[in-house]
Amino acid sequence: MTAHPFPVLIDRESLLVRIRELARAIAADYEDEPPLLVVVIEGARTFAHELARLLPGQPPLFEIRAASYGESTTSSGQVDVAGGDGLPCAGKQVLLLEDIVDTGRTIARLREWFLARGASGVRVASLLSKPSRRVVPVAVDYLGFEIDDCFVIGFGMDVGGRYRELPEVLVFEQSGRG
Ligand code: IMP
Ligand code: MG
């Protein structure tokens, strides 16, 4: 099952313990009105499902896709948003569920996207963050772990579509891209 060469960065037990803590904090903060939970697919699915099953009332998970382009070729860092058209976000508090905040561009773009469609507020829960890679400053309201600049896989995160199913967070490459 663990026939791969990648070192463990965060083991499964630590991930689950931390997600339980995040769920407790989120449940307390949104006691009066549950947020609209929006998963930034595909990488955040595993995190989102673990988190959502610990929230009261088994809230539904909505999905949105964000794809970045040009990071290696230009500095524009454009992020295209897809699949969010039917989301009932007008007048709602949106809680974005993300696997990892890297440059911050995806979250910045999604925040703007939801506010433009009438969301009353946008917060972010992310399993991981790489603060040393930040290009756009973004607030991460509920953060699992800060990590150094390395490329990680597992627990839903992939490289070229591979390794999502590995049960913990592993280091694919020590030094970051770009
Ligand atoms: P950002 O827009 O640069 O913050 O990047 C966000 C997206 O890049 C994340 O949602 C991930 O999908 C992907 N990403 C960034 N770093 C990693 C990593 O170390 N492993 C897997 N995906 C990553
Ligand atoms: Mg992601």
Task: Write up what this structure looks like.
There is one protein chain. This protein has 178 residues and is of the alpha/beta class. It is 21% helix and 29% strand. The chain has 3 helices and 9 strands; from the N terminus they run βαβαβββαββββ. It has helices spanning 12-29, 45-52, 105-116; strands at residues 8-10, 36-41, 61-68, 79-82, 93-101, 121-129, 142-146, 151-153, 169-173. A 6-stranded mixed beta sheet has the order 4-3-2-5-6-7, sandwiched between helices. A 3-stranded antiparallel beta sheet has the order 1-9-8. Helix 1 (12-29) crosses helix 2 (45-52). The chain is globular. Bound molecules: inosinic acid and magnesium ion. Inosinic acid (IMP) is lined by residues 40, 43, 68, 98-106, 151-152, 157.
